[in-house]
Design brief:
By secondary structure, the protein is of the alpha/beta class. The protein has eight helices and nine strands.
Length: 238
């Protein structure tokens, strides 16, 4: 279960002036821009749900995902992932969550894809029997067999996204965070990824939190949605 209560994330950055002189003045300036990226949000997600987390660009979706993964500490409020605060128990929580960020990869760029999977097997201490079962399942539903021996840097965007999704699922996470996983993909690849998410949810009862701007993703996959409103910003200081 995911429990979020009064979660808030505020970023504070100095207001920078132009030019070299302005840069030096910034070092001594007390003027800051305060951005409330996530503003006191509350929600609960139960085991096995597929939930869409939607909103405009800059509405704090990715920031919320990063706090739920333990990458960022909240300014205030609370996140509990199966009863644990991810930013305090990051290593423990990381063992049963999977994450896919649409513009970033967890794969090793210069080695064959299959070798990346083998490295992840060792990192997550997956035994041979479980690895074989999951790998065969993911290979089938994501259709990655034809490029397993190619270096990751030679893969197309669609191939890499399918590979990233497979990598995030190898250790059978209880919770899967997907941050715009179908961005920039063609219709056929999107369909493969959606089908894989549905099959994985049915087989393993994996909880999925999905951020996307594609309403077809929401309609096809999600039981319900959470909507995020754009951030608040203001200035403070002298």
């Amino acid at each position: 279960m995911i429990f979020v209560e009064n979660l808030e994330k505020i970023f504070k950055k100095p207001i920078r002036k132009s030019g070299i002189i302005g840069m030096f003045k910034t070092l001594f300036s007390r003027k800051y821009e305060i951005k409330t990226a996530v503003n006191k949000i509350n929600f609960t997600i139960n085991d096995g749900e597929i939930v869409g987390y939607i909103g405009s660009n800059g509405a704090g979706k990715s920031t919320t995902i990063k706090m739920m993964c333990g990458i960022l500490n909240p300014t205030s409020g609370k996140v509990l992932i199966n009863g644990l605060e991810p930013y305090k128990k990051r290593q423990q929580v990381a063992s049963y969550i999977g994450v896919v960020f649409g513009q970033k990869t967890q794969l090793w760029w210069d080695i064959p894809l299959i070798e990346s999977f083998n490295v992840l097997k060792e990192i997550y201490l997956i035994n041979d029997k479980d690895y074989k079962e999951r790998f065969e399942f993911l290979q089938e539903v994501l259709d990655i067999k034809d490029f397993l021996n190619q270096p990751v840097r030679t893969l197309s965007l669609g191939q890499r996204m399918r590979a990233d999704l497979a990598a995030s699922l190898l250790h059978n996470p209880k919770i899967l965070f997907l941050d715009e996983p179908t961005i920039g993909l063609d219709v056929l690849v999107k369909e493969k990824i959606r089908n894989a998410i549905i099959e994985m949810n049915k087989k393993y009862n994996t909880t999925v939190i999905l951020t996307t701007h594609d309403m077809s993703d929401i309609q096809t996959l999600c039981n319900r949605i959470i909507m995020s409103i754009k951030e608040i910003s203001f200035m403070m200081g002298q």
